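Supplementary Text 2. Reproducibility record for the structural model of the 341-residue chain.

All settings were left at their defaults, and a single model was retained for analysis rather than an ensemble. We include the record here because the model underlies the residue-level annotations in Supplementary Table 4.
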Amino acid sequence: MLKFGVPWGGGICASGVPGDLSRAYDLPILLAIPGKSQLFAQKNQSRPTRNTISLTNRPNTIFLSENHAIDLKDSAYTMYRVSISTICLVAITSLLLLPSCRDSGEPQSAPVFTPRALDTYPHDPQAFTQGLVYEDGFLYESTGLHGRSSLRKVALNSGAVLQSRDIAEEYFAEGVTILEDRIIQLTWQSGVGFVYDKKTFKLLDKFQYEGEGWGITHDGTRLIMSDGTDKLRFIDPHTFAQYHSIDVRDGDTPVTNLNELEYIDGSIYANVWETTRIAIISPETGLVTSWIDLAGLYDPKGWAADAKVPNGIAHDKKNNRLFVTGKLWPKIYQIKLIPPE
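Retained model, structure tokens:
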């Protein structure tokens, strides 16, 4: 006997397989396609959430349940003649492609990692962190707010600001990244980015982009930029022309408010604004492969009342250290990721 579970609204899901698939039977079978499966309910005067269709050796009959059967000669139903192998192919394809076929009925979500603090470092509680990079033993930080925006070079162990450049009051600074010997910094709503010399912080160039600027990182050859939506843009680091963009999804759900970015070991790490989560994203597909939830990492008791959500991810590639902080936080955390049980 071959059984299929049919969700109302169309589609076929295999819930069992025949014991012997070596023979290619040619049997009549009613395929529940969109617009057809509701006929079952009309015939049976009921609307169950799922029925089971059983193919038996009884001619021209399909049993929906113990108490309901369909006469296949009834003209109200569409008939097809298919082989068992075709049925199985349809069933397997449906399982892979149709969300309505999932047994759980729950939306799919990527696994969530828990961070464990390995160390903490001092951080300027007046720094409204918008971007963070670790390079050659130092942190480079972009701080935001009009009239308080800056570019900084910071000593990790002491938190001391070793070098700083103030940004004009008209700009609200955002994400920052370092590619080769250049520092690239975004602004929020001005549509303007800045390019600086890494050593001197001298302004080398400006560039323009459409929409807002939030976070920025790179994969070695392309800049990767967020704009507060569910999109990530891939940009030429020299001409600043956009190559393409990807839509970020957790399963089928768009992930918006993508903020500060860091490219780590082939994945894009993104703070999600106004949440405690970091999304780990495939740059090829845009799918979230896993999450980091920072909720249990820090205790804001005693912090300034206006200390904001997490924002700031930096990676020490040489020593494989991962750092996180937040807007107006007094600490930077070095963390280790604990996989879900």
